[in-house]
From TrEMBL:
Cellular component terms per the entry's GO annotation: ATP-binding cassette (ABC) transporter complex, substrate-binding subunit-containing
Family the UniProt entry places it in: Belongs to the bacterial solute-binding protein 1 family.
Protein name: Maltodextrin-binding protein
GO MF assignments: carbohydrate transmembrane transporter activity; maltose binding
Localization, UniProt: Cell membrane
Gene3D superfamilies: Periplasmic binding protein-like II
PROSITE patterns with a match to the protein in the record: PROKAR_LIPOPROTEIN
Listed Low complexity bias regions: 29-41
GO biological process: maltodextrin transmembrane transport; maltose transport
Organism of derivation: Paenibacillus agilis
Signal peptide from the UniProt entry: 1-20
Keywords, sorted A to Z: Cell membrane, Lipoprotein, Membrane, Signal, Sugar transport, Transport
């Protein structure tokens, strides 16, 4: 159960302690055979980078400052040049499907753990073998489990995350509301769509963010801890109730089409003081701080008296199975996920470390934003990492779009989505 995952995290890390698009089948070109460990280590047992190695790294634009800083440190230590290429987390696995076998993919890439089953099944990434022991020792059990598949570790965990609510302290001087009913009341005096002033926003039409509306009221992805794909809980009584509540909420609070609320539009409204509350993830913290806005963070308001249940995940580095420089790539993945690197990223962007010692650092434990993230994490839902999850995103996005944009009956919208998911899984 998800509560068990959270319990493992919190106990391992004391007070501390994304997504996804469709992906093709197995890569048509087999990954090149990798040299044995004996052939890649020197007398000291350290991994030796290939002569003349250079690396390309894929990460999202929000992480650019952190990645570019790490790239400079890595190059200074190993003499290996590293190039940053901007690819959003939701597109990385998809892009690797074509670019990896073609020999033009990044050597090291980051993606949320829910993509893991698909890329492993397609033979697109290498196991974390050389650094496995220290990775398991240094990072939380949850992050190690989330970046493993069929018992084998593939990832180099970097951060845990869930989205939560950021709020404008100037517009909400008494603090953030705790219930969606309070948000509705606030919107009656705070909303002014003609002046583009809004009370509450999330990325409508993006199932990653829409999920909390149906999960909070009893919906779920798959049964048996997200392993039973024959049991889909996205159109059960609780999910239907949640979507109906959301449908009514949109009419009263956010009278816009789903396409009107993109990441950039929402962030721009929030940083300019035109939006009181914004549901987003830790990746936006760095930009919010740079904007100068006085903001706070809190759990997403409850829905029908129940805590809002957000998606949660683990971000990690992975090594492309088709890289020409596997040793250098593994060295980079370990270097960029070290305790020091995770603390640097926390300081730059506010992401919550997966590294146990980094998570205990006073800079992390005393931060009120991090405390809010952990509070929301307690009620989160770890994204399934099995390949069948790939069949969920598009049908569910369409269901929410039909319900919110066209007023389609929630039960009919969700029934249609589940049928599409079921049919896709059977193929």
């Amino acid at each position: 159960m998800k509560k068990k995952w959270v319990s493992l995290l919190l106990s391992a890390m004391m007070v501390f302690t994304l997504s996804a698009c469709s992906l093709g089948g197995k890569a048509s070109t087999p990954a090149p055979e990798q040299p044995t460990t004996e052939a890649t280590t020197g007398d000291t047992g350290e991994l030796k980078p290939e002569e003349g190695a250079s690396l390309v790294v894929w990460e999202s634009k929000e992480a650019r400052p952190f990645v570019e800083a790490i790239n400079k440190e890595f190059t200074a230590k190993y003499g290996i040049p590293v190039k940053f290429e901007e690819v959003s987390g939701g597109d990385t696995a998809n892009k690797l499907t074509t670019d990896g076998p073609a020999g033009i993919g990044a050597d090291v890439l980051m993606f949320p753990h829910d993509n893991l089953g698909r890329v492993v099944s397609a033979g697109l990434i290498l196991p974390n073998d050389y650094h496995e022991e220290q990775t398991r020792k240094n990072n939380s059990e949850l992050s190690v489990n989330a970046t493993s598949y069929d018992g084998m570790l593939y990832g180099y965990p970097r951060s845990i995350e869930t989205y939560l609510m950021f709020y404008n302290k100037k517009l909400l001087p008494n603090g953030a509301p705790k219930t969606m009913e309070e948000v509705i009341e606030l919107s009656k005096t705070m909303n002014d769509p003609a002046k583009k002033q809004y009370t509450f926003m999330w990325e409508m039409g993006n199932f990653y963010f829409d999920f909390f509306w149906v999960a909070s009221t009893g919906g779920y992805i798959f049964g048996q801890n997200d392993t039973d794909t024959a049991d889909i809980g996205l159109n059960n009584e609780g999910a239907v109730s949640g979507l109906k509540f959301q449908q009514d909420f949109v009419k009263q609070v956010l009278p816009l089409k789903t396409s009107d609320v993109t990441f950039d539009i929402k962030k721009g409204l929030f940083t300019s003081g035109q939006l009181a509350m914004s549901v987003d993830g830790p990746w936006v913290i760095g930009d919010l701080k740079k904007s100068g806005i006085d903001f706070g963070a809190a759990p997403i308001p409850s829905i029908q008296g129940k805590p809002s249940k957000s998606f949660s995940g683990v971000k990690a580095w992975y090594v492309n199975a088709f890289t020409k420089f596997p040793n250098a790539a593994k060295l980079y993945a370990e270097f960029a996920s070290s305790k020091e690197a995770q603390l640097k990223e926390f300081e730059m962007t506010g992401t919550v470390p997966a590294n146990i010692e980094a998570a205990k650092d006073s800079k992390v434990t005393s931060d009120p934003i991090t405390s809010a993230i952990l509070e929301q994490f307690k009620n989160s839902y770890l994204m399934p990492a099995i390949p069948e999850m790939n069949s969920v995103w598009s049908p569910m996005a369409s269901a929410f779009s039909d319900a919110l944009n066209k007023g389609k009956d929630p039960k009919q919208a969700l029934d249609g989505a589940v049928k599409q998911i079921t049919d896709a899984i059977k193929q």
